[in-house]
Amino acid sequence: MSRADGPLRRRDAGRPGPACRRPARLPVLLLALGAVVGCGSGDDPGTSGRSEPAAGVELTVRVLLRDGVFRVPGAECSGTASMADLHATAPYRLLDEDDRLLAEGELPAGRAVTAMAAELDAALDEDVAPRRPTFCEVTMTVTAPPSSGYRLAVADREPLPLTAAEDDQWTTALP
């Protein structure tokens, strides 16, 4: 304190200054830190008072947006018309059968896939008709705990059940 702030006061002779009190706090802080670190370091997850989260598995989730828009197959796409909210960066939530949140993120861009039977599609000349009726397929990899069933909620839409396919692939389609 300076004289401009008022008269200088003397500390009580019997009370130590703040510099003398700090070293006494250090051992207490170190002990507290050691206790906190020690509580969670056991090999058995049950000893720390909380269980470890289940290990995640990588799932491939495919969402087929059946909009029937004319596009070049393989072109980047997103939902149109009534599905305009299903676009790249739209928020999604992956839920289990009991609606517990397992993962969340943003949709990636989709890719146009042909909406016609393979025979008819192969008969079309790409030079004459480069665009054809397509659906937009959004494919993403999600890491989530194993579950017997999953549901996907995108944007503000109600969750849709995902159907199991081969090799940890899960699919759904709109509408």
Give a written overview of the molecule.
There is one protein chain. By secondary structure, the protein is an alpha+beta fold. It folds into two domains: 18-46; 57-174, Immunoglobulin-like (Sandwich), CATH 2.60.40. It contains two helices and ten strands, in the order H-E-E-E-E-E-H-E-E-E-E-E. The strands form two sheets. The chain has a six-stranded mixed beta sheet with strand order 2-5-6-1-10-9, with no helix packed on it. A four-stranded antiparallel beta sheet has the order 4-3-7-8, with no helix packed on it. Strand 3 (91-96) and strand 4 (101-106) form a beta hairpin. The longest helix is centred in the first third of the chain and has 22 residues, at 18-39. The termini are far apart. Residues 21-53 have low confidence and may be disordered.
What is the percentage of strand-forming residues?
A: 35-45%
CATH class of the largest domain: Mainly Beta
Helix content: 10-25%
Mean pLDDT rating: 77
Oligomer: single chain
SS class:
alpha+beta
Distance between the termini: 74 Å
- Unreliable stretches (pLDDT < 50, length at least 5) are 21-53
CATH topology of the largest domain: Immunoglobulin-like
Task: Summarize the main sheet.
Answer: 6 strands, mixed
Number of strands: 10
Task: Please give the radius of gyration in angstroms.
Answer: 30 Å
The helix count comes to 2
Topology as H/E string? Answer: HEEEEEHEEEEE
Structurally, the number of domains stands at 2
* 3D shape: elongated
